[in-house]
Amino acid sequence: MGRRPKGLITTVREALRAWWRSKFDQADDQATDAVWTDGDDGGSTPPRKNKKVYVQSLPHAAALALPARDDVFCFEVIPAFRWSSTAMSRETLKARVPHHEDAAREELLRVAWSTARDCAAHEPAAAEAAINKKLSAEGNWCFDDSSGLIRCRPSVRVRMDADLREHVRPHHLDQVTISETEEVGRRRAQRALALTEAWLEVISELELLGEVDAHQRRLLVPFAATLADSDFRKVLESLRRERRTSTDALIAALEAARGNHQEAGLYEFADAYDKALSAFCREMGLKPFSWVDDAIASDGTAR
Q: 0.85 exceeded by the pTM?
């Protein structure tokens, strides 16, 4: 009896099996084992994929040393390896990973060495980003194991050289102190401003002053500051004393000049008098001759 010719379904099934074997032989990291099964109707079912399992290596006790730019200091590099396989269970992969960790560390040194040497020793964050970028492109490694193919994806964390870290620590502490002092001072100033304005409003309402002008504010601010901030109050009191001293000095100079102006010409005396008075008004925050403007009406007559 001759051999029965193959049916169409059988022929298609065998062709699919051959195609899948060739695809699996050339597969990359996404490839999985598959098994074809015949259905009850003589057809074939899609392949069953083996589950990919993952294992993360435990941190190594000793960090890797990669030289930084100028080869004076070294980065402390802490590698992290993520292992995967479709050829074994997770328990088997976990048991097989330690046999390949040394080789992975050596490969990490080879790939990251030149990148680390391009980075400044005091910038570990930049070095970490650069090395991980390099590893993302060149860090998909395969290891042939007795239990099957194992893949490794590395990444790193980078710290500054211990000696360099101790050297720059005082400078960073100074930066933190300056930054925090500035922030505290800014907040105190904002608080003093808000409280002083609030107490000025209280005083003006109690005194029935209405809207407080610049001259009234100059008089009342030192008293309102007393209730806002003690250090701010001391500064304003010192400012008021300085203004009072300048006022007394101007009065004394004018009294002395009243009897001595004969030694200079009238124009020279008037010019010096005007300059002294204008300088005093600027220092006091006053508009020169504002009291004259207030005392004389627009038509030139006294009010």
A: no
